[in-house]
Amino acid sequence: MKQKNKKQKLFQTGLGCAIILLLVQSLGATTHTVQFGGSHGFAYSPTAFTAEVGDTVMWQGDFSVHPLSSTTIPATATSWHSGTGSSFSYVIKVAGSYNYKCDVHVSLGMVGTFVATESAVISKFTNTSLQTQDLSLEALNASGIVTIKFGTKQSRSLKLQVFDIAGKELGTIFNNRVLPGSYSVGLGSIAKAKGFYFIKLSSVDAQRVALVFNAN
């Protein structure tokens, strides 16, 4: 009898932990809404965005006019297609780059993309204890030209590095001592492929991280 009660208690404890874990995951998940058609014309809005594994992507529009299909996605991810209705949801289960299209209007440039990361990816190459307002960092993409703007409130040596979406370092685009002020530099040829990249600005005692989308 005692053994049975013990097993039942262990089962209840395990079930309780599983439920708590699922609740925590669901609370942390985000739904990303992508709209198309109507006032958006032959385009997805937003065209590109970032998400995390566990998030949901929801497309809203007329799928009978703009049938939706995945194109290039991570090898172990599930592909998708929707040709009817006005709403379609996809839960992200695999990290990586996802691309999709309107089957009918892809020749008009009706394509979209998003990158899903594990929430711990940034921690691979950052130290959260060094995050500070003493440094500023912003990545801009205007007409396909990526510009990195950064600044400091004191004289210091600064390094600006580029990482891919998995956290692998690709190279350094700035490494010099500067005076207090604002500066800018191009992304250059380090980010050779179209997609998302992390930009890290760091000194001995501080750092900032930003995300940039390279459309070229």
Task: Kindly list the characteristics that best describe this protein.
216 residues; 5-stranded mixed beta sheet; 4-stranded mixed beta sheet; mainly beta
Verbal overview:
The chain is mainly β. It has 1 helix and 16 strands. The strands form 4 sheets. The chain has a 5-stranded mixed beta sheet with strand order 3-9-8-5-6, with no helix packed on it. Strands 2-1-4-7 form a 4-stranded mixed beta sheet, with no helix packed on it. The chain has a 4-stranded antiparallel beta sheet with strand order 13-12-15-16, with no helix packed on it. A hairpin with a 7-residue loop joins β1 (31-36) and β2. It is elongated and about 60 Å long. Residues 6-28 have low confidence and may be disordered.
**Number of helical elements:** 1
**Quick one: how many beta strands?**
16
Low-confidence segments, given as residue ranges, are: 6-28
Shape: elongated
Estimated structural class: mainly beta
Radius of gyration: 22 Å
Biggest β-sheet strands, sense, barrel: 5 strands, mixed
C-alpha termini separation: 69 Å
User: Which whole number gives the mean pLDDT?
Assistant: 81
Could you state the order of secondary-structure elements as H and E? HEEEEEEEEEEEEEEEE
Strand content: over 45%
What strand order characterises the main sheet?
Answer: 3-9-8-5-6
What helical percentage do the residues reach?
A: 10-25%
